[in-house]
Give the backbone structure.
Amino acid sequence: MDSTPFQVRLTDSALQDLHEIDDYWFQHGEPERGEQYVRDLIEKAELELAFPERAESGRRVRVAILPDTREILVFKGSYRIIYRIDAAEHVVHILRFWHSHRDEPELE
C-alpha cells in the first residue's frame, strides 16, 4: 500500500455529531467538557487515520450499507469513529462520531 498520508475529511453527519456532543455538555452545564470532547475526537481522528496502515487496521462495520466502512474505538471504547477510505484519492471520510451507548447510527 502507498504510504502517502491520507487527508481526513469530516462529512456533514460527522460535523452534526460533534455539534450534538458539544450541545449535550452545554445543556448539562459543562460547556468546557463538550468543547474538549470535540477537540479530542477531531485530533484522534486526524492522528489515527491520516496513516494508511492505521486506517486500514480499523475493524469493518458489519451493518454498513457502504463498502469498506470501518471504525476505531477511542476513549476506552466510549466513542466510535466510523469512516470510509478512498485510497485512490488518499482521503478518509469520517462518517460519524458515535457514543457507544447509543443505538446504531445511520450511515449515508
